[in-house]
Amino acid sequence: MSDNDTISLAVWDVPMPVTAGEKFAVKIGAKSSSRRELDGYRVAVTDAEGVLAASGALGQAPLPGTEALYWTMLEVTAPVRQTGEYEVRLIPGATIDEAVATRFSVAIAPKPEHKLRVTITERDSAEALGDVEIRLGPFHARTDKSGRAELQLCKGDYQLQLWRTAHIAQPQPISIKGDTSLELTMVHVPEEHPDARWVR
Amino acid sequence: MEWNLSTDVVVIGAGAAGLAAAVSARDHGADVIVVEENYDIGGHAMLSGGRVQLGGGNAMQKKHNIKDSPDQVFADWVNHRRGDSRYNDRDLVRAFADECVPTFQFLLDNGVTFIDKPIVTPDAASVPRVFVTHEWHVPGEVIAPRRNRNGSGLVRRLAESARKKGAQILLKHEMTQIVRDPGKSSKVRGIVAQADGKVVAIEAKKGIVIATGGHSGNVNFRRMFDPRLTEEYQQAGLPYSFQGADGEIAAMDIGASLWATGTQTSEVGAAITKTRHVGTRWGYLSLYYETDSPIFHLCKATGLTVTDWQEAILVNQFGKRFWNELDSGYDYINAALANHGDQNKLNGGGPIWAIFDADAVKRQKWKPEPPHVDPDGYFASADTIHELAGRIRNPYQKQPIPGDVLQETVNRYNAFVTSGVDRDFNKPTPLHKIATPPFYAAWATPILHDSLTGLRTDTDAQVIDIRGEAIRGLYCAGESQGGFAQHGLGRCLVFGRIAGRHAAQRNS
Question: What is the pLDDT of residues B248-257, one digit of tens each?
């Protein structure tokens, strides 16, 4: 690596959660600050113990929408613990001595066995609410325009949380024992007129 | 002193207070010259929401069966239970309360029109007292068009009326001095202004009204009240209306006193605010400059409006998170203004940056490119977080953010999203990882708004000197006036009107 060239990494599209003991895919990209072409360079993923979990070569073309992020998709096998930590680095080559490493984490869950179908409406207007972020522990989904979302999740007790701009809903406990459907509501809280916003 | 111009009353500043003073002085028979440093009238009020708080049982309150009275206005604004009322000068509040109804009528008489709907405000007011003016009807004469900047309708109507009644408004005339005779009890004689590089001396035979709009944009002045407010904090209203404390300074040069200075730091209201539009230098929450603003060439970017702070993290000048991003109150502000480890500059917290990724852009439907963002120091993008850190360059960012620090900050936050628990700042259920390239950094440094303290005046708006005596012929109204920490236009209009009337009624 030359003095004025830094190679750094990005990791994205990490599923959440991943299934214990099963393979999951992540995308890994590398960028040279001097925009060197990095296609063919290899990246490696190691687990918390430093054991190689996956490796592969960067593809030929930069990721669309980026300046020069060469990328690849790797498959990693999830451990059986609750969370997993991984380090990602570029494997040194003939013209590259080192690159800045990065890391990512995954939440691990048993294999999902049940479906939770959720429909969310606004309480007063009864209109379907899209773009609601739903979270139950590590499981999450986002409603479509019709206010519907489907989550695959495993048996257990969860705190169900909903999140949408200018809407509120109290978190509620939920016990998943089989396939379930829920109809939920959120309350619209109009955003204060900015001129009326008072901070204390 | 040789005067280039002579009149009865000189008003310094053509905003809400100055225009009310000018009209009022003309109504009471005085000749009036208004000097305004900007190229157009309006000052801060031009960019305001036009929310006029003048209760006490005014005509529109009566129409809507809202029971109110001057006594109720007074009781509300001296209420010891509230931070925005307990520190107010009760004599000033009494004068304000008694003048609300006639001032509302004064606005109606001078052509100001209101939307026929009362507004409930979250301040000391116990009944709906706010009515909103209509936006000015000529789009090219509204500085921030189509964004509910209805204050344009207030100041345009008042300026129109002032001119019709014979007041002379001299634009691009910057006051540089208030001239006072020598001696402790002497009166003021006039002002000196600069116009196109020339000195213009204007005699004021009866009085001078300071209506220069406050001090929030003057770093040295504002730091008298809060030493944290160093140069990185921008002023709401710029790049149109500069709150430069020029009226306060000119008055203090001839002996004037400040008043109720504690109101500035009482942590109520909008003195210091979290930015709402990121990636632009001017991100005040209710002020959004569309691309057809006549001053957009100065604004340079609209900014990206953040509707949900789940979409980004906020980091300090060293690339570290410092508070729960969902908090917008003074706890957040105080954390942002804390010293984050800068040993070369102990005051001020330095720039704050919003960091987000391509997924946030998609969810928020942002367009992270000019004219929505200002890449000339207030916005950066990169393919990796590490690279992004090195691209954050800004006049107030005194050292580069280390790439490994910002990367560690983001990795740690992403781990909190994985676990659902923010172990550093307890942001409730962090929802979105910052992971998908490209990545973005957008200026999100707190921005300053209200001047809540200023010159000491009596109930006639006469400026009081440091010994407690009135400076004969000198008046002050608006955000340059101290003693009444009410947000918005109400107090500006009332004391502007009082000042103009009293000045006009003086013997020359």
Answer: 999 999 999 9
Question: Hey, what are A49's tokens?
Answer: 């113990």
As a three-state string, the secondary structure of A16-59 is CCEECCCEEEEEEEEEECCCCCCCCCEEEEEECCCCEEEEEECC
CATH topology of domain B272-448: Flavocytochrome C3; Chain A, domain 1 (3.90.700)
Task: Determine, for residues A195 and B286 on separate chains, whether the beta-carbon distance falls below 8 Å.
Answer: yes
Q: Of all residues in chain A, what percent are helix, strand and coil, respectively (each to 5)? A: 0, 50, 45
Shortest Cα distance, chain B CAs vs residue A31, angstroms = 7
Across the range A28-57, mean pLDDT stands at 94
Residue B277 forms contact with A (CB below 8 Å):
no
Tell me which of A4 and B88 has the higher pLDDT: B88
Share of residues in chain A with pLDDT > 90 (%): 81
3-state secondary structure B286-354: CCCCCCCCCCHHHHCCCCEECCCHHHCEEECCCCCECCCCCCCCHHHHHHHCCCCCCCCCCCCCCCCEE
- Report which of B337, B375, B350 is spatially closest to residue B232, judged by C-alpha positions: B350
Q: How far, in Å, CA of A103 to CA of A8, rounded?
A: 12
Whether the per-residue pLDDT at A4 is higher than 90: the answer is no
| ipTM associated with this complex | 0.94
**Mutate which of B386, B411, B414, B422 to disrupt the A interface (most A C-beta within 10 Å)?**
B386
Nearest to B413 by CA among B308, B304, B351, B323: B323
CA B101 to chain centre: 25
User: What CATH number does the domain located at B5-266+449-504 have?
Assistant: 3.50.50.60
pLDDT value of residue B268: 84
Residues on chain B touching A100 (C-beta within 8 angstroms):
386, 403-404, 407
Q: Is the pLDDT of residue A2 over 70?
A: no
How wide is the angle at C-alpha B111 spanned by C-alphas B288 and B454, nearest 5°? 55
Question: Cβ distance A116 to A91 under 8 Å?
Answer: no
Q: Considering only alpha carbons, which residue of chain B is nearest residue A107?
A: B418
Q: A7-109: what CATH class?
A: mainly beta
The residues, any chain, with a CB within 8 Å of residue B28's CB and separated by 6 or more, are: B500, B501, B504, B505
Q: Does B286 touch chain A (CB under 8 A)?
A: yes
Task: Quote the radius of gyration of chain A (alpha carbons, Å).
Answer: 22
Q: What is the pLDDT averaged over residues B429-452? A: 97
Contacts of A9 in chain B (CB under 8 A): 384, 386
B113: pLDDT strictly greater than 60: yes
* Domain A114-188: which CATH number of 2.40.160.60, 3.10.20.30, 2.60.120.920, 2.60.40.1120: 2.60.40.1120
User: Considering only alpha carbons, which residue of chain A is nearest residue B50?
Assistant: A195
With 0-12 / 13-18 / 19 or more C-beta atoms within 10 angstroms meaning exposed / middle / buried, residue A123 is middle
Where do the domains of chain B lie?
5-266+449-504, 272-448
Average pLDDT rounded to a whole number, residues B24-28:
98
Are the Cβ atoms of A163 and B285 closer than 8 angstroms?
Answer: no
- Distance CA(B338)–CA(B345), nearest Å, equals 11
CATH 2.60.40.150 residue ranges of chain A are 7-109
Q: How far is B452 from chain A (nearest CA, A)?
A: 14
pLDDT at position B286, please? 87
Look at residue A99 in the predicted model and tell me its pLDDT. Answer: 79
Residues 6 or more apart whose Cβ sits within 8 Å of residue B164: none
